[in-house]
Amino acid sequence: MAKLSTERRFGGIFLILLGFIFIISGFAIMFLNTTFIIDLASVFFSNLPVALFFMGLFHVILGIFFIWAGRMIRNEPFLPDALRGK
Fold first, then answer.
1. Which of 22, 52, 79, 86 holds its CA 20 to 30 A away from the CA of 61?
2. pTM for this model (two decimals)
3. Are 43 and 69 in contact, with CB atoms under 8 Å apart?
4. Is 80 left (phi over 0), alpha (psi -120 to 50) or beta?
5. Residues 55-83, mean pLDDT to the nearest whole number
6. End-to-end C-alpha distance for the chain, whole angstroms
7. Residue 12 CB: number of other CB atoms within 10 A?
8. What is the mean pLDDT of the segment spanning 5-22?
């Protein structure tokens, strides 16, 4: 197997970390959207909590894509061997 260049190694790690940040922010958007500001804005916009939930879900899906892209750049399988049972 060919050795990875430093740029590909750094780029893969960057995409994986960016993916984790997107997943964490997505869960934060989905589950922490019951603040006073959101409740106040919901008076004017009736579907705001639903929109925020789908925005959080989009962030989670985008984060999974970033992790997948980072692992593919680094020539690693998407699921580590420990999760696949090997």
1. 86
2. 0.70
3. no
4. beta
5. 83
6. 20
7. 20
8. 83
Report the candidate in 13, 2, 6, 3 with the shortest Cα–Cα distance to residue 72: 13
Task: Assess contact for 17 and 51: CB atoms under 8 A.
Answer: no
Q: List all residues 6 or more positions away from 62 whose beta carbon is below 8 Å from its beta carbon.
A: 19, 22, 26
Angle between helices 48-73 and 6-31 (to 10 degrees): 160
DSSP-assigned letters across all residues of the chain: -PPPPHHHHHHHHHHHHHHHHHHHHHHHHHHS--SHHHHHHHTT-TTHHHHHHHHHHHHHHHHHHHHHHHHHHTT--SS-HHHHT-
Q: Which two tokens stand for residue 81?
A: 């061997």
pLDDT score of 32: 76
Q: Which residue has the tokens 């997107």?
A: 22
